[in-house]
Amino acid sequence: MKARITIRRAKPSDARTISNVGKSLKVVGEITNEHTSRGFLRGDVRAESYLEAIKYSGYFLVAVEKGKVVGFVMGYPTSYTKPHNYLQAYVLNHYSKPESIFIDQVGVLRSSQGRSIGKKLYETIFKKAKGMKVVAGSWASPYNRATELFHLKMGFRKVARPRGVTNGRKTAAFIWVNDNGT
Ligand SMILES: CC(C)(COP(=O)(O)OP(=O)(O)OC[C@H]1O[C@@H](n2cnc3c(N)ncnc32)[C@H](O)[C@@H]1OP(=O)(O)O)[C@@H](O)C(=O)NCCC(=O)NCCS
Predict the structure, then answer these.
(1) Mutation to probe ligand 1, out of 113, 121, 138 (largest number of atoms < 8 A from CB)
(2) How much distance in Å is there from the Cα of 82 to the middle of ligand 1?
(3) What tens digit of pLDDT does each residue of 17-49 get?
(4) Residue 2's pLDDT band (boundaries 50, 70, 90)?
């Protein structure tokens, strides 16, 4: 029988396990075809950063299976966004008024992907956002095809392609918006 997935609000005590999921998905070096087709994270995956967002926001959710965190969505109100990179700065500048929900990261353990866990996480965010726009970012260069296809399936539209420099390299991003009934 298929184990049940529960979606719940993240607790401060989840920060370390969320960080382990984030670390397993993070790619620092070159992006291979495998990374492009299955997705990857580039951002901050430290437990202390997750802890801060968990304490602040009711839009940080985890997916739990048999007591184990197998996925998470790190969302928070856009006005809380810290512009550590140009993607975050774009979201802060364009989507804080009116307040929206910014999805900073979404991740599902490799071994649990393709089982609608990402979808369940987003469906719960849409319910909680109650008419607010939901805004997400993804990398265009290096390209994250998995997250592009995932966000299209989740009803997002691509609204912008900001460019900038991250870790000394020229990169580009996509900004995605789901109007969520607004
Ligand atoms: C992107 C990610 C969160 C998707 O999570 P998931 O639980 O595997 O996705 P789901 O099973 O809920 O898929 C939902 C829909 O998106 C589509 N989708 C998800 N991942 C896909 C992929 N890699 N390629 C093509 N389509 C994909 C599915 O086909 C599904 O569509 P369907 O409902 O018509 O079947 C997951 O692959 C992941 O964590 N990747 C690594 C980290 C990452 O890239 N995060 C995003 C950047 S912040």
Answers:
(1) 113
(2) 26
(3) 999 999 999 999 899 999 999 999 999 999 999
(4) low
Provide the whole-model pTM. Answer: 0.96
Is the CB of 124 inside a 6 Å radius of any atom of ligand 1? no
For each of the domains in the chain, give its residue range(s) and CATH number, in order of start: 5-178 (3.40.630.30)
Ligand 1 binding pocket includes 156 (Cβ within 6 Å): no
Using CA positions, which residue lies closest to atom 13 of ligand 1? Answer: 116
State mean pLDDT over 150-166: 97
Long-range contacts of residues 140-143, Cβ cutoff 8 Å, at least 24 apart: 140/171, 140/172, 140/173, 140/174, 141/170, 141/171, 141/172, 142/31, 142/35, 142/36, 142/171, 143/31, 143/36
Which ligand 1 atom minimizes the distance to the CA of 139? 47
